[in-house]
Recover the amino acids of this structure.
């Protein structure tokens, strides 16, 4: 298991978007655990698991439910995570 702290940003599809910082990455069996910290307002850090299957799909981005929108009872939207940022600095699977 490897952990990396290279910084990357992403946002959800809500208007106005919630902005997040990828503050931690850890390669686990079957995928990558990504730590997301909200940067536009104080909010607890959350970990999101991105499976190897999601990373290998043909798109440039992985979409995960926005936990801020879900917590606020808003229509569920997606956080757009660029694949290049998910695996940034991690050893190959």
């Amino acid at each position: 298991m490897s952990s990396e702290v290279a910084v990357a940003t992403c946002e959800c599809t809500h208007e106005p978007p919630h902005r997040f910082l990828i503050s931690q990455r850890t390669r686990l069996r079957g995928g990558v655990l990504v730590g997301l910290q909200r940067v536009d307002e104080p909010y607890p850090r959350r970990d999101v698991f991105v499976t190897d299957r999601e990373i290998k799909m043909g798109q440039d981005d992985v979409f995960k439910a926005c936990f801020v929108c879900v917590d606020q009872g808003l229509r569920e939207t997606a956080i757009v995570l660029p694949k290049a940022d998910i695996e940034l600095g991690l050893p190959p699977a």
